[in-house]
Design goal:
The chain is of the alpha/beta class. It contains 14 helices and 13 strands. Helix 7 crosses helix 12. The longest helix has 23 residues. The termini are close together.
Length: 372
Amino acid sequence: MLHSTCMRIALVHDYLNEFGGAERVLLALSEIYPKAPIYTIYFKKDSPCGKEFKDKKIIQSWFSYLPFADKLISPLRFLVPLVWNSFNFSKYDLVITSASWAVTKGMKGAKKEICYLHTPPRYLWGYDTSRDWQSLWFAGAVKIYALVVNHFMRMYDFTQAQKVTYFIANSKNVGRRIEKFYRRKDYAVVYPPIESPHATSYMLHSTHYLTGGRMVRTKNFDLIIKACKKADVKLKIFGSGVEEKNLRKIASNKVEFLGRVSDDELANLYTNANAFIVAQKDEDFGMTPLEAASYGTPTIAFRAEGYLESVVEGKTGLFFNELTTEAIAKAIKKSEKIKWNKDVIRNHAKKFSKERFENEVRSIIQKYAGTS
């Protein structure tokens, strides 16, 4: 059995642009194996990821040299097999893939591969995606194109999944998808790591509710905005994205758009919010409710999928049962009547620490990849 420090290890990730939950996991993996290079389709140095991964050895594919690579990767998704096959990982003892959108699994030449799966590609397996093609004037042509391309990409995704030595799912919810779509039962669940809280300042009285992240249609920010208007409460929204312009049109004067915020600013927002609100229909796991919990802030969440694993009803948050303005507004009013125990909420978040993540990942890789 080789010691991990003696092994040649490579990390592989879809692409490095926005810095979200999947990229936080990749960063944690790179801290476990700091000498491992990171292979990716493209890396935008002037992006949020640029700052976080500036000291890492990044190896980009040929696709990254195309003009507007970040805009072309989705419509040219049929090139993904060619992109990954342009790399050969035969010189590595172990390849660890961080996979979601770009079928980042089954790497060419990999002797052993551990795949940390954030989700099977949503666009291939019937889940809502962030892009709203239906609103485009050429939506009909896009639909036909997608049906043809996605059929072959789905077969490719299934085939690549069979080459993986062992899967790590980011939640029980994603574990069920591994069984359903890849017909694999050999996986473990390792929840993503939640960072320790940054320094914060406290208000005497919380005056606002909070939501945020990438402003895409799947997160249903429009419902949250309308619900806060109906409940007559203030709402702060952090983040940016393609839906921001439309969301601003429906927002009242009690809604504040903050854009991208620093870690310290986000910490203060979490700390001083009455509650954090999330409303995605089929969330893979739900890291943001745990980030809120680490600051003692409860979450109001849609009762479905990954949120059921990150929110404990009545202790760390509340659920609403329907994706409607009325249901969310009712949950907000209910939350206002509860005296939340911030210590209980914080202790829940501690169960998802980075130390726990690192220990569980090391244990699995030791068992299935022969490291110690």
